[in-house]
């Protein structure tokens, strides 16, 4: 391969052929299996969307009922996983706890039969069912409390909020949270999905795949940006401070968290929907001064960087929604992971359908023929 073929960050290089999702970054279009994100956010549920992503078609009513039933049935995690989490330091980040717990599932479900559709379905069900339980469990364990067991009467989103707060959530909050999960479920060849596909290509188990993807999602340039946005809004503190804050970041050539995207050169359509959800939530629960700061920030950044295609991404408004729901900031990225498990598993399945191990090349730019120098002569 010639040196001119190399693109730092693999920008513009296709890493797979995929039918799972599509982004048009100029028009601000996102589709899952050809269905617009707006239609799914309006009418679907997270589990129906996960089914669509993973199996390629909307489920029939009975298929969806079976899928929901099986996920509800598998929500509990083994006491040994909970005991393992009790050994984690309480100061540890919940994304690290999730990565370790997801990997640990592989110890308990070690049978691997990648050519058996029943095995694939069981692994999908188990991961979608147990990841939220593990996120909520660590939240209680790190405070020295016992985890709250899942509630079989509640659907996916409501059950997660219940496990977090030991209280059945308001239906509007549960509905908004479910839409947030839909919005975060999949997004073409982002870094964590690429990681999932590379790991899948070695024919390892799905727990290792999800663990590798969780580790990738955690970074502040990817899913971790949603936490950083809230720290930034808190640091800004008032609408008047937005402009000097943005200008000082730009003067230092620092990145503004929650803005910019490799693919979108307009406002991320998920950010538009999340902003509306934030407004719905504030109508119900009362306003939030951080929302006013965020809106002003969007205006100032558009003024300074809009001509370069830098607008809010999915991580900009999501944190404001979760914060108003009373969710701790360091759970925002684990919540992103709960949703993205659907996309990672869809890519796992697609990768297996036409697998070849990922093994790109590199352009070696180091030395050759260096002599070995004995340690006493260095
Ligand atoms: C997610 O890929 C996906 O699909 C990811 C995701 C998903 O659903 O999976 O959408 C989720 O990860 C959202 C992104 C969350 N990250 C952030 O909000 C962090 C802040 N954003 C940036 O660091 C950045 O925009 C990235 C990481 C999102 C994209 O990085 P790129 O494509 O490598 O772009 P770049 O860093 O090379 O920036 C290109 C130019 C630079 O200017 P020049 O050096 O050319 O002069 O744009 C500038 C950058 O400085 N720029 C920014 C900026 N983002 C880009 N300048 C200030 N603030 C920003 N946020």
Automatic annotation (TrEMBL):
The active site is at 261, 315. The keyword NADP does not apply. It holds the Pfam family Citrate_synt. The keyword Transferase applies. It comes from the Bacteria. Keywords: Transferase, Tricarboxylic acid cycle. GO terms for biological process: carbohydrate metabolic process; tricarboxylic acid cycle. Gene3D superfamilies: Citrate Synthase, domain 1, Cytochrome P450-Terp, domain 2. Pathway: Carbohydrate metabolism; tricarboxylic acid cycle; isocitrate from oxaloacetate: step 1/2. One of its GO terms (cellular component) is cytosol. It catalyses: oxaloacetate + acetyl-CoA + H2O = citrate + CoA + H(+). Belongs to the citrate synthase family. This is Citrate synthase. It comes from Petrachloros mirabilis ULC683.
């Amino acid at each position: 391969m010639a040196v001119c073929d190399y693109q730092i960050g693999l920008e513009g290089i296709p890493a797979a052929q995929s039918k799972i999702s599509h982004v048009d970054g100029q028009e601000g279009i996102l589709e899952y299996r050809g269905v617009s994100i707006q239609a799914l956010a309006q009418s679907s549920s997270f589990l129906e969307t996960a089914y669509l992503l993973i199996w390629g078609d909307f489920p029939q009513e009975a298929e969806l009922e079976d899928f929901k039933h099986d996920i509800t049935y598998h929500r509990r995690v083994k006491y040994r996983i909970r005991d393992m989490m009790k050994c984690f330091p309480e100061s540890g980040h919940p994304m690290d706890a999730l990565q370790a717990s997801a990997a640990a599932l592989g110890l308990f479900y070690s049978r691997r039969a990648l050519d058996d559709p029943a095995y694939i379905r069981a692994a999908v069900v188990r991961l979608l069912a147990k990841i939220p339980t593990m996120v909520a469990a660590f939240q209680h364990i790190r405070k020295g409390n016992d985890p709250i067991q899942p509630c079989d009467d509640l659907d996916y989103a409501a059950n997660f909020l219940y496990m977090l707060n030991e209280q059945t959530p308001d239906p509007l909050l549960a509905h908004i949270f479910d839409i947030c999960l839909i919005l975060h479920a999949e997004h073409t060849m982002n870094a964590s999905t690429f990681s999932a596909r590379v790991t899948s290509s070695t024919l390892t188990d799905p727990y290792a795949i999800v663990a590798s993807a969780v580790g990738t999602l955690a970074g502040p340039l990817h899913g971790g940006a949603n936490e950083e946005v809230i720290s930034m809004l808190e640091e800004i503190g008032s609408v008047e401070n937005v402009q000097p804050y943005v200008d000082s970041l730009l003067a230092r050539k620092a990145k503004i968290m929650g803005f910019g995207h490799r693919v979108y050169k307009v406002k991320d359509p998920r950010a538009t929907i999340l902003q509306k959800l934030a407004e719905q939530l504030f109508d119900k629960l009362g306003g939030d001064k951080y929302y006013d700061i965020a809106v002003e920030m969007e205006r100032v950044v558009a003024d300074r960087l809009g001509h370069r295609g830098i607008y809010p991404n999915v991580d900009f408004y999501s944190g404001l929604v979760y914060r108003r729901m009373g969710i701790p900031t360091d759970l925002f990225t684990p919540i992103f992971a709960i949703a993205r498990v659907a996309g990672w598993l869809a890519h796992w399945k697609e990768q297996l359908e036409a697998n070849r191990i990922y093994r790109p090349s590199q352009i070696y730019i180091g030395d050759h023929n260096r002599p070995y120098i004995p340690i006493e002569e260095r």
